[in-house]
Each structure stands twice: as C-alpha cells, then as structure tokens.
Amino acid sequence: MGKITKIEYFRLPPRWLFVKIVDDTGCYGWGEASLEGHTQAVEGCLDAWAEKYVGYDADDIEHIWQLSYRGGFYRGGPVLMSALSGIDIALWDLKARRLNVPIYQLLGGKVRDKLRVYAWIGGDRPSDVETQANVRKAQGFNAVKMNGTEDLGWLDSPRKLEDCVERVKIVKALGLDVGVDFHGRVHKPMAKQLVAKLEPHDPLFVEEPLLSENIGGIKDIAARTHCPIALGERLHNRWDIRPFLESGCVDILQPDICHVGGISEMRRIASACETYDVALAPHCPLGPIALAANVQVDAVTSNFVIQEMSLGIHYNVGGQDLTSYTLNPEVWRVTDGYIDLMSGPGLGIDIDEVQVRALSKDTKAWVSPTFSGPGGELREW
C-alpha cells in the first residue's frame, strides 16, 4: 500500500483531460476527466482534490469515492462527477498495476474475451455517409452510429426528416447495423414523427430521442415504438438513472464513464440495469483512457452489448485521435466488429507521458459548438 503524493491533470487536444496519480512507492495510475466544453470547471474541482487527497491511502478507492461525492453539501452533476471519474479511474489503474493484473480481475473476473464495438459516421451536419460507412466497414466494424438530423426547430418541416431515413437505408444496404442519435436536438413534435419513420427500417437503437429532463416525453415515445430506446450520457450517477429504469422507458443505457464517477459507479450502474433487464452500451466519444476504463467494466458485465469507440470521430481534429498518447495503440484493432479484451495490467494501455506533457502545454479548452435557427434563436446542439 502507498500514500498519494501527487495528483496532476493534463489538458490535451483534441478535447481531453487526463489525470495522473502517484503514490510514495512510485506506483502510478492514469484517469480521464474529460467534460466536453467545461474543461476549466473540472480543473477547478481537481485543484481542490489534488491538495485534499495527498497523504490518503491510494488503495482506499471506495473511501475516496464516497468522500468526494458525499463530503460536500452539493452532490452529483457533470462537473463534480467528471472530476471524480478522473480520480477514480486513476486509482483503479494504480492499484491494478501494482498488483500486475488487469482491472477486470479486481472486479470479479471477465465474462467475455472480446467486445462488440461501433464507430461514428457523419458529423454534426450529416450528409454523405455512404463513403464513411464503407471506410468503417474496411476498418472491421459491422455497426455504426450517426446523427439523425441537423439542428431542428421545435416544430419544423416534416421534409427535414426524410434525409435521415434515406441515410439509414443506404448504410443498412452495406450490411451494417445503424444506431441513430437524435442528440437531444429533436423536440417532441418532431421526435414522434422521426421515430415512426425509422421504425420500419429497424435501427439498432434510437439514442436520446429527447433530452433526459423530459422523461415524460421519453416514456410517451417509448410506448409508441418497438425501436430500442437508448440514453444516458447526460445522467451522472445511479440516482439519476433510477427513474428511467423504474419507468421502463429505456432499453439500452449509455452512461459515460467520464461523467458518472468512473469505474466504481459504472459498475454499480451496470448492476442496476441488469435488475431491470436493461442492456449496457457505454457512451465514449472521448480519449483512450476513457475507452480502456469502459472496457474493464464491459469485460465483467453480463448485460453489456456494444461499446462506442471514438476512432476517427469528427471531433478528433488537429492530428490527435484514439490511438494518440499511447504506446500500444494496436489494442484498438477491430476484427469482424469486435476488439479483443486487453490482458495488460491496469487499464491495459501504456500512456506515452512524454507526448502527454509536451502536447498539454498551452492547450486551449475545447468550446462546444452552438446552432442558431433562421430567426437567430438558439437551437439544441
């Protein structure tokens, strides 16, 4: 066992925030606390914890998790939980590296040797997806996800929904399964129509048909369709997901390991989903540490179904991608729609610290895009 001596964080392109924890025995672990568009807020939280947790036993992961969550008057939310994710993932990596085992061995052991994965095609303004779908197919994927629409008004022309259906038909004709992400940008008057139009074409899932604060509307849509409903990236702990499980309006939960408090809370969320016969398909458009952390939980989760990968996602600009910042990027090789479970210690990836430190210098925080309608009104991104 060792006492924590240092907690550092590194703001990195394209839009990631890595965390490193070192103890007094020389052991270390890496975590990820990326919160798209709110990097500075998470860094402020990490500044406070970097002072607070020096001297704590690095093995006491659950104690540190509970203290971080319950030790202040205010709890939950994306900023606190993302900062906690970085700490938690790094502590699991540190502990498993010290014991020279993968993290999944400390979570009960694996129930699978490989994991099905999917990747993005298109972007925030999807148009020609056929070329990108063929690229994904050549990379080894048999499932993809794309945005359903560009930004829409609360009530918009039904004609704007037809392009989404055509894109799904084109990609399915290539032999790929297709998840359709409404991204919370489709409001109820349009979402009801779009789900109905997609249903005959059997999407793999419909993601975030409405923003998660509109649980009543999601229940209404879920009751009208046989399409699997997926959501969860904007839910931040087990208490947030509880009403969705209890109402029966979600079929596939997509928590983001960087926004729910890390490996510890993701494992609890996965077990909660299992009790409601809800599948787990973690959200992960972020960096290699986030993906590796998801893989550790996916490996031990019986109700896991598919994992999002950020390889080549449209947000990865400037030369950095999922394969950056690591010395063994070959672990992300996709074959017949699957990646093999890593067998290395800790997270199973080796961070290139030289590159991390070099590229973190003077890196600006990523700013979320905004969309405006023809009248100048703000639209959902």
UniProtKB/TrEMBL annotation:
Gene Ontology MF terms in the entry: galactonate dehydratase activity; metal ion binding
Keyword Magnesium: yes
Domain of life: Eukaryota
UniProt record, GO biological process: amino acid catabolic process; D-galactonate catabolic process
Mandelate racemase/muconate lactonizing enzyme C-terminal domain boundaries: 126-228
Entry keyword Iron: no
Essential cofactor(s): Mg(2+)
Keywords assigned: Lyase, Magnesium, Metal-binding
Classification via InterPro entries: DgoD-like, Enolase-like_C_sf, Enolase-like_N, Enolase_C-like, Galactonate_deHydtase, Mandel_Rmase/mucon_lact_enz_CS, Mandelate_racemase_C, Mandelate_racemase_N_dom
Designated name of the protein: Mandelate racemase/muconate lactonizing enzyme C-terminal domain-containing protein
